[in-house]
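User: Please predict the structure of the protein below. I'd like the answer in structure-token form so I can feed it into my own downstream comparison script.

Assistant: Understood. Taking the following sequence of 490 residues as input:
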Amino acid sequence: MIIRNGKKLLNLVDQMLDLSKLEAGSLSVNMVQGDIVNFLQYIGESFHAYAETKNIQVHFQCEEENLFMDYDPEILSTIVSNLLSNAIKFTPEGGQVYLRMGSEAVNAEQWGQIPFRTDASFLQMRVKDTGVGIPDDKLPFIFDRFYQVGSDNLMVEFHKAGGTGIGLALTKELVKLLGGTISVKSKPGEGSEFKVSLPIRRTATWVENADHFLTKEDLVPFTDVTLEKIETEIATDEKGEKPLLLIIEDNHDVVRYLIACLKEDYRLEATYNGKNGIEKALELIPDVIVSDIMMPKADGFEVCQILKKNRLTSHIPIILLSAKADIASKMEGLERGADAYLVKPFNKEELFVRLRKLIELRLRLQEHYGSIPLLEVAKDQEIAVEDAFIRKIQTILEAHLGDEHYSVTELCPALGVSRAQLYRKFKALTGQSVGRYFQSLRLHKAKAMLQSTALNISEIAFEIGFKDPGHFTHAFKNEFDQNPSEVRER
């Protein structure tokens, strides 16, 4: 990871130096003559493995079997690699990227003054994707140096792709250096198409295979090709187990770092966009969530808002991680329900402390709900949401105290949740299973009846669903450390 990120940094520095050389007029063009079809096909194929990590297909399409012309292998590879890299970065999983090329006779006057033009034939190269697209008001500026697309939800992928605003600026200058033009058309939500036109000349020295100047490592951005799957098992008996922590983060390096930091103290699950994170949280009901903010499909703010309003996940502590350090972003995160907001790069010790304190708060919440008597309506809005959930369960269970066969199997449909969801939510709030809680509720009812009615012990046992008085006495003794007869005598 260190080596790969070091190379990414080196690549960024190289691009900045190339821009400086272009400004100074000292970046030389080293033309060779060869089959540009084979050269561009080689570059396109170099991106297949990278694209497959996102389940994206890269297609190379050419109208001609061969096209011989002059070109600079290093400069042209930089142009095409930048365009393909951007297309893959900004295309969602399952999308398509196309590299199309062909020659075309063009009226040269419409391109302005083109250096070293010998005829009106041009290489027309297009890079098209089915990605997020670019808003109309951003299109005029995307080739400006250091310009980055705005922060609206549609364009969140541009931020997450790690853009610096250098790649397209450099690409445009390199195209101009080769005597060509570059343009773009795009529609938000449907994708973008970049078109590069280069004049066809045939005066340079012939080379058989220009791709020997390059390696695939030179072409493809330094990104993860694979990501280890985090295997976890959600056990039904959690006695003595580590807390379950859900990581929602689309940067694979950050996920790996979090795993390295937290794997000793937590069971871990990871998902790589906000939409899947919400689904995973509803499925697993984790003990705590660590989420990024800038993510595709749903950002961290949406994750917070949706999970905090859902009765199954409203109790889960959420820590937001973000590179956005401004006060407005922090306030928005807290307003949406985040329990903590940490700015990247975060201090791992601070993360440890935040997690520990939030889990301690949940333990105090368990003490709050550990008592059987029906609770008073809480004034705190967050606790009131949990009160309503517990009260509904208590009401249903109290209506079935005398039914010895009533269990979690019947309770789940009444609440509209699955058995696993109810187990984890209820365990998080009370520290015990629903079955154990139901029995405790019955026994507290029996104790109240012993103190307020003239029914004998067997009749009371039958009233609360115990058909065996001996079993009732044993359970009562375990719950209150005294026999039913001792309570009756008092």
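That's the full token string. The radius of gyration is 32 Å.
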